[in-house]
Amino acid sequence: MINYKIAVKLIKQLDWKLITTVLIIFAFGLVILSSATHVNSTGVYDQLYKQGLAFLLGCIMIGLILLVDYNFLGKYYKILYLVSVILLAIVLVPGLGKEMGGARSWLNIGPLHLQTSEIVKLTFILSYAKIVESKRDRLDTLKDIAPLVVYALPFILLLLAQPDLGTAIVFFCIIAAMIFTAGLNIKLIKRAAVILVVSMPIMYLMMAPHQKIRIEAFLHPEDVTLKGNYQVMQSMIAIGSGGVTGKGLYNGSQNQENFLPVQDSDFIFAVVGEELGVVGMVTLIALFAFFLVRIIAIAQEAKDFYGTLIVIGVMGMFGYQIIQNIAMTVALIPVTGVTLPFVSYGGSSLLTSLANLGLVLNVCMRRKKINF
Question: Per the UniProt record, which residue ranges are transmembrane (predicted)?
Answer without folding.
Answer: 18-40, 52-73, 79-97, 145-162, 168-186, 193-210, 267-293, 305-323, 343-364
